[in-house]
Amino acid sequence: MASPRSLRGPARPRTPTLREVLSELAEGALRIAPGRTGAPPWPEHRQRMLVDSVLRGWPIGPLYVVAAGPAPEVVDGAQRLTALLAFVKGAFGVDGLLSPVDPMLRELNGMRYTELGSGLRQAIDDYPLVIIELDGVRPEHVRPMLFRLNGQEWLTPEQRLSIETGGFGEQVRTLVVEAADRGFEPGRIGFSNIGLAYEDVVTRLLVAAEAREVGAAGELEARAKSAEPVADDVSQWTADALSALLRLPSVDGAGIRFSKATLLSWLLLLVQAGQRFGPASAHHVGRLLEWFERQRRRVAAGLELTNPPPVLSNYHDLPYAELLALFNEYAAIDALNTAQILRRDVILWLFLLVCGGLPSPLNEPGPLLSRLYRMLADGAEPDTAIAEAASERWGVW
Predict the structure, then answer these.
(1) Contacts from 183-187 at CB under 8 Å and sequence distance 24+?
(2) CA–CA distance, 116 with 332 (Å, rounded to integer)
(3) What is the pLDDT of residues 151-208, one digit of tens each?
(4) Where are the domains of the chain?
(5) Is the dihedral of CA 35, 40, 44, 46 positive or negative?
(6) Strands 73-76 and 131-134: what pairing?
(7) For residue 75, which of 159, 156, 7, 131 has the smallest C-alpha distance?
(8) Residues 343, 390: contact at Cβ < 8 Å?
(9) What distance in Å separates the CA atoms of residue 237 and residue 221, rounded to the nearest whole number?
């Protein structure tokens, strides 16, 4: 049995001054790792609070560093270092009115670093930072380690699961970062990554792609806890779906904004269509998305449709507005459970069929969709018909 000593990687603390650490950053002897927690950048108020703590001589917590590449990386404390560097460079001034109010700090209110007296600047430069250097930490273990160190109690069980998943979680993070580099950001998507929202969507997409089953997107726990990365081809399918979505001109159009649930549904459609019909299918998905997203938002606001869907001539007998309303309902109530994911998927595929997105009605899932179309055209209750279709081993490819 391994001894307790053999179970621990060495952790070496050191206590350089702020000036020394900033010098190491400038010289490339220390690097700030890209954000690993999914948290948004600190607002200026929080940066001012950090500087206030330094001016009072209060501790600001240790920084954690992991050996990586040409220079060690700061993997926890990057926001603190970034804020202190910005202050020293004059990006913002002292907030002397923070509670508890200090008469001396009040006199410094609004002053930037270069405007402070030489003695006070010296005290800031000499502020001791505790740096803990960790050896032997594998890259996929960095994020779980950081969240344990920081005690992120605000996380939901699903968010915590997406973090504590070893190589699988790191694979998800890599896909999110690569997508962000291509424009996967709030201005285009419609929501931010606060609370690891992007990572949750990509985790669900990855699990479904691996299982080749849409319903798997609602059942994460067993797969994620295995911590094993998915195969390279599955990861590539997911990356291709993310890229295809971001390349669609309609994504940048007015009125095209997603929620986590609707984004997941469109990505699942892209993965399936790409696997079934090849990359050219993204064009048909994009054409549908441009109409569908605008009109479903109008339905959600209680407005009439501005134009009919771009359907083929023999598919005009669907209750389109009612189907859009159902999609909105399925995306709002228990939106990430298996039943709702499957029902949204049925609706998107039905619209893809009637808009000419299948090479032939004989291509799967065309036959089932054709039966569903006839049921709805003959007056069947849409909610019941959609639920029935979703229960027929739907979404397996």
Answers:
(1) 183/246, 184/242, 184/246
(2) 53
(3) 555 455 555 555 555 678 778 888 987 888 788 888 788 887 766 788 889 999 999 9
(4) 10-137, 147-247, 282-397
(5) negative
(6) unpaired
(7) 131
(8) yes
(9) 21
